[in-house]
Design a protein that fits this description.
This protein has helices spanning 10-22, 33-42, 59-68, 84-92, 105-119, 152-163, 171-178, 188-200; strands at 2-6, 26-30, 47-51, 75-80, 97-101, 126-129, 132-135, 140-143, 146-147, 168-169, 206-209, 213-216. By secondary structure, it is an alpha/beta fold. It is elongated, with a radius of gyration of 18 Å. The structure holds calcium ion. Residues 8-9, 51, 53-54 line the site of calcium ion.
């Protein structure tokens, strides 16, 4: 899952990027409204954390432009404390949730997980497919109750597949959702991650659909 962080305060932006990175997300960053608008319009991000007070173009305007252009990714806005009309304006502009600054990172991560799973139509923080259970809260995966050891990229691939069970996911979809934009992407690595995951998951859990991509299948 790929998240765009839009925040002009370097310290908060770095803390957010570090926390999201350890939680298993690929992270794109923008520190002004113009870059944010371009990234959010062109990159298939799974969610956005959007500060409203931004240089060049304010967050509310960026959000309105995305929504007017039909961009539907979940957006969590960061607002100034005690500024209730900012929250109202943000929600009216198409924000899905808000957090007032200063916020607790754990709360932000929980709200982000909830936004992403609701966008995918999932009710629970635990995603299951047959014996495979992925806990999005702890970024952990188990099979039949036995914990798996996954690298961060193996986790990202499986997390994306688990959010789209039974659907064909192309290799380019996977690349776009497991790597941030500035990452040096090598499409062959997806095959390597899939091959490694297959060794760790039950037989037949990840199907190859010839010419189209991969599909996570239940028992
Ligand atoms: Ca700001």
């Amino acid at each position: 899952m790929r998240v765009l962080i839009v925040e002009d305060e370097p310290t908060i932006a770095s803390q957010l990027a570090a926390a999201l990175g350890s939680a298993g997300y690929a992270v794109d960053r923008a520190d002004n409204g113009i870059d944010a608008h371009v990234l959010g319009s062109n990159e298939p991000v799974d969610a956005v954390i959007l500060d409203l007070g931004l240089p060049q173009l304010d967050g509310l305007t960026v959000l309105k432009k995305w929504r007017a252009a039909g961009r539907t990714m979940p957006v969590l806005i960061l607002t100034a404390r005690d500024n209730w009309h900012e929250k109202v304006a943000g929600i009216d502009a198409g924000a899905d949730d808000y957090l007032a600054k200063p916020f607790h990172m754990e709360e932000l991560l929980a709200r982000l997980r909830a936004l992403i799973r609701r966008a995918g139509g999932h009710a629970s923080a635990e995603l299951t497919c047959g014996e495979v259970l992925l806990d999005t809260r702890a970024a952990r995966v188990s099979v039949g109750g036995v914990m798996l050891t996954l690298t961060s990229h193996e986790y990202r691939v499986l997390n994306y597949l688990m959010h789209h069970p039974g659907q064909i996911v192309s290799r380019s979809d996977l690349i776009e959702h497991i790597y941030a934009q500035d990452f040096d992407r090598d499409s062959n690595t997806v095959e390597v991650f899939i091959a490694r995951l297959r060794k760790k998951l039950p037989d037949g859990a990840i199907e190859t659909v010839r010419g189209l991509g991969y599909r996570l299948v239940g028992p």
